[in-house]
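Report of the visiting student (M.T.), summer placement. My assignment was to run the structure pipeline on a short list of targets and document each run. The first record concerns Fumarate/nitrate reduction transcriptional regulator Fnr.
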Amino acid sequence: MSSAGDLPLSGMAHKAQMTCHDCPLRHFCLPARLGEEEVARLERIIRRNRPLQKGEHLFRAGEPVQQIYALRSGSLKNYLLDQDGTEQITGFVLPGELVGIDGFGRSTFPGYAMALETSMACTIPLAELEELAGAIPNLRKQLLNILGRELHEEHEHLSHTHESAEQRLALFLLNLSSRFSKRGLSALNFILPMSRGEIGNYLGLTTETISRLFTRYRQQGLIDSQGREVHLLDVKALCGLCATPADTTPSGLQAG
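After the run finished, the structure tokens were exported:
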């Protein structure tokens, strides 16, 4: 079902020595609003990490907040653990997105970030970033923009918890589609980096419910899927599943 134009997330920005200037994801990340000289100043404080393997943590709850991260390739899940050790997934991170910014204003990270596949992240020391943001207004604006977007997305996710299971999964697929599209990947054909169980955990649904919904969507001609490969066949109908008078198609994705 994959086409030649489809790329896995792990194939993006994979060169170990790639700089911010060369990175194709720079327009999502901190350099988005910066000029060339400002990008060079940011580049000097960034460290490149070794690849994370699937199941390896980028950070854990309770570790000191001394840096944040920008994901270069692969994908991560953010999650919390309750008092009984039960995992609650709070989000999925794609290339070009910052990781650990929920630690701003805290002494330790409140949650965990774990690789869903082989992934690479850039480390950005927080003290040096704060100092640089004080000297570069456009960097400060970009940080505020990213923080605002994170808060908005969290609010959006919480606002959909009262909706039906069918609506929640449709919104999830459309949101992923839009995010893939913005990264130059196919909006209609993609590979899910997360499992059915992880999708269910994030959406507050059981794995069995997610599997039934995938089957129903296939039977209705909305999608085709095989394993983690998904092909959106009828975006307009998917949008219709979750539409309310105030709803719009997710940014970057056309319903036609």
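The chain has two domains: 9-159, 165-241. The first strand starts at residue 47 and ends at 48. I thank the supervising group for their guidance throughout the placement.
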